[in-house]
């Protein structure tokens, strides 16, 4: 890694300072993701399937 330090640093700097990539999460998106995760966990608990596939559980319901 020390021999390729300059190349790695260049890549990390691009990722860090790229204005096209949004590194932050707004509160609305965080709330949506949290609610989506809780809903998926509740469905998996209420409708367990042998393979654990939530999609099949939704199709059967």
TrEMBL record:
Residues 42-61 are annotated as: Disordered. Residues 1-61 form the PI3K/PI4K catalytic domain. PROSITE patterns: PI3_4_KINASE_3. PANTHER family: SERINE/THREONINE-PROTEIN KINASE ATM, SERINE_THREONINE-PROTEIN KINASE ATM. This is PI3K/PI4K catalytic domain-containing protein.
């Amino acid at each position: 890694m020390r021999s390729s330090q300059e190349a790695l640093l260049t890549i990390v700097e691009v990722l860090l300072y790229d204005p096209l990539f949004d590194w932050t999460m707004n509160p609305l998106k965080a709330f949506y993701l949290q609610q989506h995760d809780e809903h998926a966990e509740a469905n998996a608990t209420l409708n367990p399937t042998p393979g654990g596939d939530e999609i099949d559980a939704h199709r059967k319901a």
